[in-house]
Amino acid sequence: MIRIKKDKLIFKKSARQSQDIVNQPLIFASARLPLFYKVLVINK
């Protein structure tokens, strides 16, 4: 019983980590977006 619980916990953790890896570029892009807009405005 305990081992199954532990495996489930590990699975949940790894699933969350893989989701973080997927979300990381999106967070990075959304953080950089205002900078790109500023550059576009300055260049115009």
Topology, pairings included?
Layout: H1 2-43
Provide the domain count.
1
As an assembly, this protein is single chain
Order of helices and strands: H
Number of helical segments? Answer: 1
Strand content: under 5%
* Sequence stretches where pLDDT stays below 50 over 5 or more residues: none
- Approximate helicity band: over 70%
Radius of gyration: 19 Å
The rounded distance between the terminal residues' Cα atoms is 65 Å
Structural class: mainly alpha
Mean of pLDDT: 71
State the major sheet: none
Shape: rod-shaped
What's the β-strand tally? 0
Would you write up a description of this structure?
With 44 residues, this protein is mainly α. The chain has one domain. The protein is 95% helix and 0% strand. The chain has 1 helix and no strands. It has one helix spanning 2-43. The chain is rod-shaped and about 65 Å long. It starts with a helix and ends with a helix. The model has no long low-confidence stretch (mean pLDDT 71).
